[in-house]
Amino acid sequence: MKRLQYTGGILAIMLCFTACKKDNEFIYSGPALAEFSNPPSNVNTKTIYTANVAVRDSGLLQLISAQVSGETKMTWDTTGLKNTAKAPDHIEFENAFGQLSIPPNSSHHRFYFSVKPAAAGKSFSMELNGGDAKPNENTKKMTFNFTAAGMDFNPTSRTFRPAVEANDTIRIAITQAAARFPVALTVKYKVNDSTATQPNQAVEGVDYEFITPKGEVQIAPKAGSGYFVIRWKPTATIKRIWLSLVPATGLNMNSRTFVYTVNAPL
Fold first, then answer.
1. Distance between CA 44 and CA 185 in Å, rounded?
2. pTM for the whole thing?
3. Kind of pairing, strands 33-37 and 134-135?
4. In 10 A of CB 193, how many CB atoms?
5. How far, in Å, CA of 233 to CA of 165, rounded?
6. Shortest CA distance to 171 belongs to which of 217, 232, 221?
7. pLDDT tens-place string over residues 183-223
8. In this predicted model, what pLDDT tens digit does every residue of 1-35 receive, in sequence order?
9. Cβ contacts of residue 182 below 8 Å, gap of 6+?
10. How far, in Å, are 121, 204, 205, 209, 227 from residue 239 at the CA level?
11. Is residue 257 within 8 Å of 242, Cβ to Cβ?
12. 134 strand-pairing partners
């Protein structure tokens, strides 16, 4: 008898939990809603880094309802929004401007656009205003903030002591870890050759030469940095060169200068 009572008690508890779980399940039964989304943060603002070439990026439109067999077509505009970026001067959409659609039997659609160098420091907002689903009032707007990616020498100074002719490598890096562009970048630098203000100036062709193309660095797609190579001749005296990044629309060059010293005393 005790065994039967014990077993019956367990079954009763299990039934209770099952019943509670069913009662607490959330099933959305309202009208179909469409909204912008920005996973994983789900905050409807997104920072996009610009470069000195157009950069492809995207946003996400999603459907809150059961999937449907046909397209869910939505319209959007910028009326009343304080945009400083304009289309197509700063941002250019791959689909028709003001129109988006979620494919049949799907819950979302990723839309793509290109961000141009001139967009740096500007922002662009878009707002759903109608279509086959009702815009979700809380998430019907999406704002993209465009920020120039920083470039810098890394490190910003170096001492090299070659005993014989030898190559050395200088690195130019993107300062934001989040800025990894899907396209290749060419970053320009120059030699500051004002000997009046920079004593012990090394002479190109006498003290050193560029092995890679002078004045530019290639940063490969999705890479964070690029390199150039200088070949030095040994010298008994201290020699220096000063390098600086060349300003470019879409990039923040940080006004940094690279100081290169050869054969400085230990």
1. 29
2. 0.82
3. parallel
4. 12
5. 5
6. 217
7. 999 999 999 876 556 678 888 999 999 999 999 999 999 99
8. 444 444 445 444 444 444 444 455 555 567 899 99
9. 55, 56, 221, 222
10. 40, 11, 13, 13, 22
11. yes
12. 33
